[in-house]
Structures are given as structure tokens and as C-alpha cells.
Amino acid sequence: MRRLLVLGSTGSVGRQTLEVVRSFPGRFRVVGLGARRNWRAAAEQAREFGAVLALEDPEAARRAARELGGRLRVLGGPDALTELASTVPADLAVGAVSGLAGLLPNLAALEHGMDLALANKETLVAAGELVTATARRGGRRILPVDSEHAAIHQCLAGEEIAAVERLLLTASGGPFRDAAAEELAAVTPQAALCHPNWAMGPKITVDSATLMNKGLEVIEATWLFGVAVEQVQVVIHPQSIVHSLVQFVDGVTMAQLGWPDMRAPIQYALCHPERLPGPVPPLDLLRAGPLTFEAPREDAFPCLRLAYAAARMGGTLPCVLNAANEVAVELFLAEKLSFTGIPRLVEAAMAAHRVRGHPSLEEVLAADAEGRRAARRAAAAC
Ligand code: MG
Question: How far away, in angstroms, is 64 Cα from ligand 1 center?
Fold first, then answer.
């Protein structure tokens, strides 16, 4: 039985992880669950799996403990997820927290002997060097749950990274793929939250609409696979059937295909290296329809260019890009910032930052705080 921690269990990836777990009775034991504040859903999950529960919100933790009647251990407070990953032994942690809030719990899981099934790309964007070094030091694996990176991981099975010419990350293009650049200023949160292919949480759905999600994935790919940023190319593929591709030096291209269903990369990471029949329906090419590809429109979606610039510079700059983006997305969802204001805030925060190379954890957290402050300042000045 593989013991699992699910960090971010009430979010979209967390819930789908538990769905995959339920379809393999006897194979996994969920020993710990972590969430922010959704105590009702979290307590129900804890009861079902008999797991230790951690909630970031102290009041939510008190309510969950009351609900569970003292039968299960409940941790509460801002560090509860890190405490969970540090004190509950497990084989694999699923990192499904949204945003940089996932960094410390993910690091704790790697430091305490767990492999990491990573859906939380912000962790690698902000602290890729630190997180991958921590995994290497402890001999732990980072298995991508992000669908594009899971695709690349599968295309690279049995291959040498030196034989890779480039990685091709596919992007749906989001709901505004064809919108005129001047229409984007008036985009509402409701419109941005309607993703054409994938059902996901609000932060990543907005990131998909700005293409920042793809920019973050470019940076994520450099850390996961040890390639240079120039070797990662983005291709718009509106049908989301080809999940990503690898081109090798001999001119061969490998791709992984499937329906857009997050349970597929989740199952891949949970079961790796085994392949087992599960809940994901196989692709039917005749029903998938035509598959098309186009270049991203960098004029309308500057977030992609900003992410490439941050990746090229490296050091603390990707962390600042991510921090400013998290603030900008929150403001946009609260209707306090326009859609086109998101890249403006990110660019302003990046311009104000003095980059530090090979940042320590303290320097990453300081750069994150600085990026957030700079984005709020830029928003106030808008
Ligand atoms: Mg993705």
C-alpha cells in the first residue's frame, strides 16, 4: 500500500486525486489531507479516509475538529500543511495547493522522504533550483501532474535528455485565443473563468486566459527536465488532445495524446512506473475531430514574453513574476484590476526588482514578498 498525503485536497486536483484513489481500492492509503479553509469538505474527506487533517485557517480547523468529534488528528494554523508533511510519514505527497503557498509543504514532503507528485507549478517557478536540489539530495522523485509535463515525462521514458532538441508545450489558447487585442481590456472575471477544455481552479483558469499559465509551464519544464529555456517552445493547440511533444536531435517527434482529463496525469504520477486500467476513457481519434496548431499571439498575451524574460534572467526574477501575477489575478478576480492590467503589474514588479542569483529559501520568500508589494503599488498607481 502506497501511503499518500494530499496537499490541497479540496481543490480541483485534490478532489480528482481522491477520485483516482477510490478507483484503486487496496493500492493507496491516504494518511494526510491538507486544505486552506474548506472545513466541511475536508472533514468529510478525513472521515472517509481516516486521515490526519491540516487546515491553514485556525477557525476552520476548530470547526473540522468539532465536526470529527476528536476521532482524528486535526492540525490548524498557517504552517499546518508543512507540519503535516513533516510529521505524518508517507511515500508520496500530491502537491496540489494553488500558488506559492505550496512551496513550504512541498519542500517538507521532499525533506521527509516522500516523492512529490507536483501539480503546483508555482513552487518550481519561484524556487526551482532549491526544490530540485532538495529532491536530488534526498534521492526523491518529482513526478509532474501538470498535463503537459506529464506528457513530456512519458515521451522521455527511456531517452537521454542530451538527445532532446526541444520540448513543445501545447496550450489551448484559453477563451480569448481569437479575441482582438483591444477587446481584452473589457474582459470580465466570469468570461475569463470559462475555460474551453479544462475544468480547473480559478487561479489557473485565469492564468490560462492570459497565457501566464503557459509561461509558468515553460519555467517549470526547464527545472523538471533540465533543459535550457531556449529549448522550450509553446504551440497553440485549441483542442487540447495533444498534451505536449518532444523533438529529438534525429528529427523524430514524440507526442502524448488523450482527452483533456486531469485524472490521466494524476493516475500516471500516482501509479508510476506502473500502467493500470483506471477511470480515464481512452482517446477515440475519430471523435476527437481535426487537430490544429498555431503560433501564440505574443502581442495580445504579453505574459508569455514576460515569463520567457524571467526564465532567461533566472535567479529571483521568476519568483517575482509569479508573486506579482498571484496578486494581479486576485485583484482581477475581485474586479479591482482589468484583464490587461495583469501583465502591466507583472512587468512593473519585474522592472523594480534587483535580481539575486541562486537564491536561498529566505531570499525566495523575500523576493516573493517584494514582488507582491511592487504589484500592489503598481495597482494603486493604475
Ligand atoms: Mg498544464
Answer: 32
- Say if 132 falls within a structural domain: no
Model confidence band, residue 102 (pLDDT cutoffs 50, 70, 90): very high
Residue 85 near residue 108, CB atoms below 8 Å: yes
50 Cα to the center of ligand 1, angstroms: 31
How far is residue 191's CA from residue 209's CA, in Å, rounded to a whole number? Answer: 9
Q: Determine the distance separating the centroid of ligand 1 and the alpha carbon of 22, expressed in angstroms.
A: 24
How much distance in Å is there from the Cα of 59 to the middle of ligand 1?
A: 33
* pLDDT at residue 200, as a whole number: 83
Sign of CA dihedral 7, 11, 17, 21: positive
145 Cα to the center of ligand 1, angstroms: 8
What's the pLDDT tens digit per position in 10-50? 999 999 999 999 999 999 999 999 999 999 999 999 999 99
Q: What does the pLDDT read at residue 254? A: 98
Query: Within 10 A of 288 (CB to CB), how many other CB atoms are there?
Result: 14
* pLDDT tens for each residue of 132-172: 999 999 999 999 999 999 999 999 999 999 999 999 999 99
What is the whole-number distance in angstroms between the Cα of residue 78 and the centre of ligand 1? 27
> What's the number of domains the chain is made of?
2
| Domain boundary residue, one of 100, 120, 140 | 120
| Helix segments in 229-292, DSSP class H | 263-271, 285-288
Q: Are 358 and 315 in contact (CB under 8 A)?
A: yes
**271 in a domain, yes or no?**
yes
Q: What is the mean pLDDT of residues 70-97?
A: 97
> Residue 107's domain spans which residues?
2-120
Give residue 92 CA to ligand 1 midpoint distance, Å. Answer: 21
Average pLDDT over residues 298-303: 92
Residues 159, 116 share a domain: no
How far away, in angstroms, is 135 Cα from ligand 1 center? 22
For residue 133, which phi and psi values (nearest 5 degrees)? -65, -40
Distance 147 CA to ligand 1 centre (A): 5
Residues 199 and 333 in one domain: yes
Is residue 359 within 8 Å of residue 127, measured between CB atoms?
yes
CA 223 to ligand 1 center in whole angstroms: 15
Instruction: Flag whether 135 is in a domain.
Output: no
Ligand 1 centroid to Cα of residue 373, in Å, is: 27
Residue 233 has pLDDT above 80, yes or no: yes
